[in-house]
Design a protein that fits this description.
The chain is of the alpha+beta class. The chain is built from seven helices and 14 strands. It is globular and about 50 Å long. The structure holds D-MYO-inositol-1-phosphate and calcium ion (2 copies).
Amino acid sequence: MPEYLEIAVEIAREAGALIAQLAQRPHEIAYKRPADLVTDADRRSEALIVERLHSHFPKHAIVAEEGSGLESDSDYCWYVDPLDGTTNFAHGFPVFCVSLGLAYRGEVIAGAVYDPTREELFTAERGAGAYLNHRRLNVSKTRTLSESLLATGFPPFASNHEVNMELFFRLTQLSHGIRRAGSAALDLCSVAAGRFDGFWELKLNPWDKAAGSLMVTEAGGKITDLAGRPFELLGHEIFASNGHIHEESVQVFSEVMAQRAPRA
Ligand code: IPD
Ligand code: CA
Ligand code: CA
């Protein structure tokens, strides 16, 4: 394992242990916008991660969700989600994680996602595979949408809800079902681990998807936007799948979008 991934793992474990410990206590909840929560755990986890990353890699840039990142003209940039699944965390639903992704010139080269509830550590290095607790990951072999278990998410603000409800409705009819577990980073890791056959979301930030997107491609899966165009870390949409169901799903996305009533 390269040094940067070893250190990312160490930090993800440490921050994961912190949020697991804080999960046992009452939380201070604040609102960034209605239904967009932030807790003391998000902030404390981010402070720990940024401090550790900066002390190991003082020249690297850091983009962190709660705003304490560091600018730099380095080719290396860390994308940090200190607590992915904040709404779950705040309600005591145990699906949340820490996600660290490292990009070199805009391309993700390493990722570590740690789920402290299940003690599951997902790691990936570009060209060297994806692992769950040191076991090599492979996407599922499911061939058709009708045999697939899918996942999606809804951003904590309303703009894209309506169209995603329509996608949710249609894909529920065409598959084994859709899960909305509330942590995009873990959803992507679940595609990499073959637990989900596909996952889409319309408006994610780079810290939600940097590490998880590499897990999927390194596990043999495919990542694009909903129209099947190349994935962009700084873009909003994502569709990750085992590759086999990709085309069929993209077709459904485009049919649903095309059938939407034009707005008055
Ligand atoms: C959210 C989660 C959720 C996804 C939202 C994200 P947060 O991240 O990943 O599953 O649907 O779009 O914003 O706020 O819990 O870090
Ligand atoms: Ca997130
Ligand atoms: Ca977060």
